[in-house]
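Postdoc handover notes: sequence design on the structure in folder B. Input tokens:
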């Protein structure tokens, strides 16, 4: 893998708020692959599970597609973008309806190999 090349994985339409996901992402940004997995495994947040899956997936992409060693991977970029909102309604008194917005997000992880 040359200096400019990186390996990427994306989880789309994850049914959790991007704000909640970003709180967890900030804790693993810039860390090694193994360190990030360890942190994610023991965090008390629900956002840890989908992030763990994406980090695991990007490492598998690096190993299978580029023959990189998982022990040398470092998370160079990790971010959560806002996805579409699921629109639902809550019935209220006198025939009214309140809108419920259920947010989704897209989680992107980019890793680079250190030599």
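Designed sequence:
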């Amino acid at each position: 893998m040359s200096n400019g090349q990186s390996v990427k994985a994306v989880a789309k339409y994850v049914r959790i708020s991007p704000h909640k996901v970003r709180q967890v992402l900030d804790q693993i940004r810039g860390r090694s692959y193994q360190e990030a997995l360890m942190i994610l495994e023991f965090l008390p947040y629900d956002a840890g599970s989908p992030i763990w899956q994406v980090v695991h997936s990007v490492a598998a992409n690096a190993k299978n597609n580029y023959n990189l060693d998982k022990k040398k991977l470092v998370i160079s970029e990790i971010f959560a973008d806002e996805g579409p909102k699921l629109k639902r309604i809550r019935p209220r008194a006198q025939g009214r309806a309140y809108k419920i917005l259920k947010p989704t997000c897209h989680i992107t992880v980019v890793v680079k190999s250190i030599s």
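Context for whoever picks this up: The chain has one domain: 10-113. Don't rerun without checking with the PI first.
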